[in-house]
From TrEMBL, chain A:
Catalytic activity reported: a quinone + succinate = fumarate + a quinol
Domain FAD-dependent oxidoreductase 2 FAD-binding: 49-459
EC number, UniProt record: 1.3.5.1
Domain of life, source organism: Bacteria
Cellular component GO terms held in the UniProt record: plasma membrane
Annotated organism of origin: Phycicoccus elongatus Lp2
InterPro entries documented for this protein: FAD-dep_OxRdtase_2_FAD-bd, FAD/NAD-bd_sf, Fum_R/Succ_DH_flav-like_C_sf, Fum_Rdtase/Succ_DH_flav-like_C, SdhA/FrdA/AprA, Succ_DH/Fum_Rdt_flav_su, Succ_DH/fumarate_Rdtase_cat_sf
Protein name in the entry: succinate dehydrogenase
Lineage: Bacteria, Bacillati, Actinomycetota, Actinomycetes, Micrococcales
A single MF term (Gene Ontology): steroid dehydrogenase activity, acting on the CH-CH group of donors
Protein location: Cell membrane
PANTHER family for the chain: SUCCINATE DEHYDROGENASE 2 FLAVOPROTEIN SUBUNIT, SUCCINATE DEHYDROGENASE FLAVOPROTEIN SUBUNIT
Membrane topology: Peripheral membrane protein
UniProtKB/TrEMBL annotation, chain B:
MF terms (GO), sorted A to Z: 2 iron, 2 sulfur cluster binding; 3 iron, 4 sulfur cluster binding; 4 iron, 4 sulfur cluster binding; electron transfer activity; metal ion binding; succinate dehydrogenase (quinone) activity
Gene from which this protein is expressed: sdhB
Name by which UniProt lists this protein: succinate dehydrogenase
Family of this protein: Belongs to the succinate dehydrogenase/fumarate reductase iron-sulfur protein family.
Residue ranges of every copy of the 4Fe-4S ferredoxin-type domain listed in the record: 160-191
PROSITE patterns per UniProt: 2FE2S_FER_1, 4FE4S_FER_1, 4FE4S_FER_2
InterPro entries: 2Fe-2S_ferredoxin-like_sf, 2Fe2S_fd_BS, 4Fe4S_Fe-S-bd, 4Fe4S_Fe_S_CS, Beta-grasp_dom_sf, Helical_ferredxn, SDH/FRD_Iron-Sulfur, Succ_DH/fum_Rdtase_Fe-S
Listed Pfam families: Fer2_3, Fer4_8
Cofactor(s) for this UniProt protein: [2Fe-2S] cluster; [4Fe-4S] cluster; [3Fe-4S] cluster
Protein species of origin: Phycicoccus elongatus Lp2
GO biological process terms held by the UniProt record: respiratory electron transport chain; tricarboxylic acid cycle
Keyword Oxidoreductase set for record: yes
Length: 665, 258
């Protein structure tokens, strides 16, 4: 074994090849599609694909592969595929349609996304994303997705943070809902056609790897508790993001890392786990009872103006009585070119800075007031209340319902919250992980957003992956099949299944003192404090220690009532939290090793004189892909730890875009 | 009611009567619980989280209820709260806040009740019948990759707006729970109107409505007698006129011999 670096990880070989065709980006995707082997329609029915997740990434892929005639098994933990968390996306979806004739193009969308990601994403994948973006809009409109339209009946667009063109398509504040319903309906059509078998209220708890290939999953039927084996020729994970490692986030209550983590433990590398997006416009925390945070779409920054009082004494005053001269519109002041539309990471960090300076507003939470104003008074004056209502009505209503305040009359209060995870399982150009036959799409992979994601580009990625990319690349893999039949009593299958059964038994047998939620909250506090908006070496080392201690306590002292053979929501949560307790450590290790600031990852040791993030391209121009390190003892046993993970670097090469320090000033 | 010391004078002590049912074959019963010091800023489900933590600490199995997004959009949550689907406000259960109640209130919490929504456990029901109605025709048949340019068919804003409004349905099932006949006509009307208002939805319009209605009846949902209770309970304000649209489309389809 090589020496431990920082005492917590080792370094292995570099990743040599991402399998992107060796041609300029502009012709690359065409070439890949041409080169991908074809599967004869008559053979498709004999090929089966498991897809975990029914959000935009999974739902779109299941529908498309079903239409093509493959045998698809689709899984989600909710009671219907329509409830995947993609449903909650509000603001919109980007596409390089250039309907506004404002100079948009595939190249500009590509450039904006790479720059927005702070030059930590892979050029080849992002170019393809921009390239297929226009097809997504066509497909969705054909499915009946009711995008916003102008009076002439044509599609409307708006602009979103971090860009200077209008390329975002939207359906009031419910874009994700409408896109997901489109994918869901296409999926249900295939269920009716018999090509897709749907498993709702089923949770994937283990990956089956046989003869070096992903060949199936172990899932628990959440209603009956039955542990089931599902086998296939290939497995796709489209299981979403892992922001819930912070306990409080804008993710759904059930969002989890279990599918990804189980695959990671079986050999899939985890890419850039520490890259987390903290969204600037969320409704502030109101108390200890808080179970989740609610996002206010970033589209609000188009018309709302963000400010805090110039003087601390004014922080308690009714904001309407504070005169213009005493307000600090700090984003407009610091970033005159982009103003309120700077990328999310910058808007979030500046909000934190204002509150740390003691100029935050709203109730005291701990030692600080954690809130800044988002003010629509000017917009209402300029456009009229009716126009503002048209555009943002449902968001304003939601704000009023949650806070009990009327945002048409007093400015809203907002504060950053964990929102999206750019990190995820490492995939190559084909979206295939380091385990052959295991593909990863949507938020669950790491591929397109570098260290920071631009608004309206996750929906774009989910649908690009699901409708257009994966169906082409997985075809090339499946063309090598059908693979030898795996039987349910093959050693690898039995081992995976036994592991799940044992783990379930072990969790229920602990019968300790503390609830699952109490562990989850404590983990969340550690992550927010030390691996949140600002990270330091000392803090991260401390967090790693704390998490190890907490994990050991969890396996000794968690209290889960009820049994394994019925609907048992505490048991479900316990499994998810157990995996978060391992992921959290890896995130801290990744954040510790990356001693630079980039995008959402801000290391206090690496900043410019005026407090902006400072990248170190000479040392860190790579993707950190982590291999799971087996510990000496069983990591699930009390007191033990995971083994030290192994870092594999994938060097990032910029050929189409010139590397620059990001500036929005 | 036990009196408690409140950490804030605005906080509340409440009596809850909650439906407990071990499984589909258990008869089930209402059980009484007391909760204290509940903040008006909590959501209704956060109040149940607090109760569940208490039960867990006492060694009593927590109450099972569904929720996921807790933002009023996924449609996973849904409780009958003192006889009102999603409670006293026009919103989802997860977006209902405790400021809608007052100190000393007694609140009854039950699952959706309808033959087509069998109870799984406590407050959790099986709504897969909704998915099957969509499978019967709630879609536009267009395979990936075969779509024309998006702006090729302009949609008049008025029609686009009505399609959008109908498409806001979150599939929660409150309309069924509120209906004395347990009919799902509002849910179905919303889908038929969404797709029927759009040019893309025309080719399958008549077949769609016939097939969906037949599935609806097959699932055991009741007939519509125009009580309007559905629309009142709907957290997304789906108007009752989508049912008229559905009936009109159904009549046209029948005339065409569909
Ligand atoms: C509040 C909010 C607003 C947003 N707004 C925007 C926006 O305006 N524009 C934009 O581009 N992006 C937005 N995003 C981001 C975007 O919505 C998500 O990144 C994207 O929808 C993720 O899609 P997905 O298909 O990868 O995963 P999801 O939609 O999260 O789906 C995950 C699926 O996996 C299933 N699953 C997970 N684990 C398991 C398991 N172990 N077993 C079985 N099934 C499992 C779930 O049931 C679900 O079906 C927003 C995100 C949030 C939270
Ligand atoms: S019509 Fe309204 S009440 Fe009925 S399922 Fe849809 S959103 Fe829920
Ligand atoms: S939990 Fe999603 S709508 Fe209530």
């Amino acid at each position: 074994m090589t020496d431990l670096i920082h005492g917590v990880y080792t370094e292995g070989e570099k990743i040599a090849d991402t399998k992107a065709p060796k041609v300029p980006v502009a012709g690359m995707w065409e070439k890949r599609k041409m080169d991908a082997a074809l599967v004869n329609p008559a053979n498709r029915r004999k090929l089966s694909v498991i897809i975990v997740g029914t959000g935009l990434a999974g739902g779109a892929a299941a529908a498309t592969l079903g239409e093509a005639g493959y045998h698809v098994k689709s899984f989600c933990y909710q009671d219907s595929p329509r409830r995947a968390h993609s449903i909650a996306a509000q603001g919109g979806i980007n596409a390089a349609k250039n309907y506004k004739e404002d100079g948009d193009s595939v190249y500009r969308l590509f450039y904006d996304t790479v720059k927005g990601g702070d030059y930590r994403s892979r050029e080849t994948n992002v170019y393809r994303l921009a390239e297929v973006s226009a097809n997504i809009i066509d497909q969705c409109v054909a499915q009946g997705v009711p995008f916003a339209r102008e009076y002439g009946g044509l599609l409307d667009n708006r602009s979103f943070g971090g860009v200077q063109v209008s390329r975002t398509f939207y359906a009031r504040g419910q874009t994700g809902q409408q896109l997901l319903i489109g994918a869901y309906q296409a999926l249900e059509r295939q269920v009716a056609a018999g090509t897709v078998e749907m498993f709702t209220r089923h949770e994937m708890l283990e990956l089956i790897v046989e003869d070096g290939r992903a060949r199936g999953i172990i899932a628990r039927d959440l209603v009956t508790g039955e542990i089931q084996t599902h086998l296939a020729d290939a497995v796709v994970l489209a299981s979403g993001g892992y922001g819930n490692v912070f306990f409080l986030s804008t993710n759904a209550m059930g969002s989890n890392v279990t599918a990804n983590w189980r695959a990671h433990r079986k050999g899939a590398y985890f890419g850039n786990p520490c890259y987390t997006q903290i969204h600037p416009t969320c409704i502030p925390v109101s108390g200890d009872h808080q179970s989740k945070l609610t996002l206010m779409s970033e589209s609000l920054r188009n018309d709302g103006r963000i400010w805090v009082p110039k003087k601390r004494e004014d922080c308690e005053k009714d904001p309407r009585t504070i005169p213009e001269a005493d307000r600090d519109y700090y984003l407009e002041r610091i970033y005159p070119a982009f103003g309120n539309l700077v990328p999310r990471d910058i808007a979030s960090r500046q909000a934190k800075n204002m509150c740390d300076e003691g100029r935050g507003v709203g109730p005291m939470v701990g030692d600080f007031r954690r809130g800044v104003y988002l003010d629509f008074a000017d917009a209402i004056k300029r456009l009229g209340q009716k126009a503002v209502e048209e555009k943002y009505g449902n968001l304003f209503d939601m704000y009023a319902r949650i806070t009990g305040e009327n945002p048409y009359e007093t400015p809203m209060r907002i504060y950053p919250a964990v929102h999206y995870t750019m990190g995820g399982l490492w995939v190559d150009y084909d979206l295939q992980s380091t385990i052959p036959g295991l593909f990863v799409t949507g938020e669950a992979n790491f591929s397109d957003h570098g260290a920071n994601r631009l608004g309206a580009s996750a929906l774009m990625q989910g649908l690009a992956d699901g409708y257009f990319v994966l169906p082409n690349t997985i075809r090339d893999y499946l063309a090598k099949g059908p693979f030898p039949k795996v039987s349910e009593d093959a050693p690898a299958v039995v081992e995976a299944r036994t592991a799940v059964e044992e783990r379930t038994k072990r969790l229920l047998a602990i019968k300790g003192e503390r609830s699952v939620d109490s562990f989850h909250k404590e983990l969340g506090n550690i992550m927010w404090e030390y691996c949140g908006m600002e990270r330091t070496e000392a803090g991260l080392l401390k967090a790693i220690d704390l998490i190890r201690g907490l994990r050991a306590e969890f396996w000794r002292n968690v209290k889960i009532l009820g049994s394994a053979d019925t609907l048992n929501q505490s048991l479900e949560k316990a499994g998810r939290v157990a995996d978060f307790l391992e992921l959290g450590e890896l995130m801290c290790i990744d954040a510790l090793h990356r001693a630079e600031s980039c995008g959402g990852h801000f290391r206090a040791e690496s900043q410019t004189e005026d407090g902006e993030a400072l990248r170190h391209d000479d040392q860190f121009l790579y993707v950190a892909a982590w291999e799971f390190g087996d510990g000496e003892s069983d990591p699930n046993q009390p007191g033990s730890t995971m083994g030290a993970p192994v870092l594999h670097k994938e060097d990032l090469v910029y050929e189409a875009i010139e590397l620059k320090q990001r500036s929005y000033k | 009611m036990a009196t408690s010391t409140k950490s804030d004078p605005k906080n509340m002590d409440l009596t809850l009567r909650i439906w407990r049912q071990d499984g589909p074959s258990d008869r089930g019963h209402l059980q009484t619980y007391e909760v204290s010091d509940i903040s008006p800023d909590m959501s209704f489900l956060e109040m149940l989280d607090v109760l569940n933590e208490q039960l867990n600490a006492k060694g009593e199995e927590p109450i099972a209820f569904d929720s996921d997004c807790r933002e009023g959009i996924c449609g996973m949550c849904g409780l009958m709260i003192s006889g009102h689907a999603h409670g006293p406000e026009k919103t989802t259960t997860c977006q209902l806040h405790m400021r809608s109640f007052k100190d000393g209130d007694t609140i009854t919490v039950e699952p959706w009740r309808a033959d087509a929504f069998p109870i799984i456990k406590d407050l959790v029901v099986d709504r897969s019948s909704f998915d099957r109605i969509i499978q019967a025709g709630g879609f536009i048949s267009v395979n990936t990759g075969s779509a024309p340019e998006a702006n090729a068919a302009p949609v008049p804003k008025q029609k686009a707006d009505r399609a959008f409004q109908s498409a806001e349905c979150i599939g929660c099932g409150a309309c069924v729970a509120a209906c004395p006949n347990a009919s799902a006509m509002l849910f179905m009307g919303a889908k038929v109107t969404h797709l029927g208002e759009l040019p893309q939805g025309q080719p399958e319009r008549w077949a769609r409505v016939v097939s969906m209605v037949s599935q609806h009846d097959h699932e055991g949902f009741g007939g519509c007698t125009n009580t309007g209770a559905c629309s009142v309970a709907c957290p997304k304000g789906i108007p009752q006129d989508v049912i008229s649209t559905l009936n009109k489309d159904l009549r046209t389809a029948m005339r065409q011999g569909g």
